[in-house]
Structures are given as C-alpha cells and as structure tokens.
Amino acid sequence: QVQLQESGPGLLKPSQTLSLTCIVSGASITDPNYYWNWFRQPPGQGLEYIGYITPFGSTFYSPVLKSRTSISIDTSNNRFSLQLSSVTPEDTAVYYCVKMGNLCFERWGQGTQVTVSS
Fold first, then answer.
1. CA 9 to CA 61: how far, in whole Å?
2. Buried (b) or exposed (e) across 56-90, using 16+ Cβ within 10 A?
3. What digits encode the pLDDT tens for the residues 22-68?
C-alpha cells in the first residue's frame, strides 16, 4: 500500500525558511509514471497548489509562490522535499504531499500543520 508521510517543523518565525520532507513507501519515487506534488490549505480556505517534481528532477511551481519555492527529490531515500523561503503568517497552513499518477492525485499524506508566528 502506498503511503506518504510529511515531516518538518510545525512552528516558524517570519522570514525563516520552511522545510518539509515527504517520505514515500510502497512506491518508487523513480517510477516515471508518477509526479510528486505539494499542496497546502490555510485555515478556513481551500486547497492551494504549490508545485511538483518529476523523478527526473523537472519542476513546476505555482506562479504565486514560484519566487519562494523549491522542490527537490532524493531518490536514494525515496523522498522529496519542499522549501519555502521568507515565510509570513500568510503561509500558515496544513501542508500535504501528494502522489499523482494516471492524471489523478491518487494518494495523499495525512498533512502537517505549519504555523508562522512571531
């Protein structure tokens, strides 16, 4: 069974860099049929797409967050990561890592709460 598990610090101060890792089990992160994605959901709002990375290292970022976002892949440890720089309280959200295959977001992590506060 495919599982994704987010990990990272839950509390940040403004201007710090958010770093989250998604550990993938039950599927190979090098499978060319999958893309590896990040979403977030701020409190009281809908899901917001952050971006993806392919097994070959190609990336796409939401234009809204592109200037502050970096997604990387670690094929040796079957995981991928998100970095978001210069965070503000508006970056407070539940962050999800998601496996996309067959043009569907078919497996989601449970999500991890990130709060930005001074």
1. 22
2. eeebebeeebeebbbbebeeeebbbbbebeebeee
3. 999 999 999 999 999 999 999 999 999 999 999 999 999 999 999 99
Q: Comparing C-alpha atoms, which of 20, 23, 3, 33 is closest to residue 100?
A: 33
As a whole number of angstroms, the distance between CA 41 and CA 60 comes to: 19
Tell me how far apart the alpha carbons of residues 93 and 96 are, in angstroms, rounded to a whole number: 10
Query: Using an 8 Å Cβ cutoff, are 35 and 29 in contact?
Result: no
- Residue 117 token pair: 């506060």
Phi, psi of 79 (to 5 degrees): -150, 165
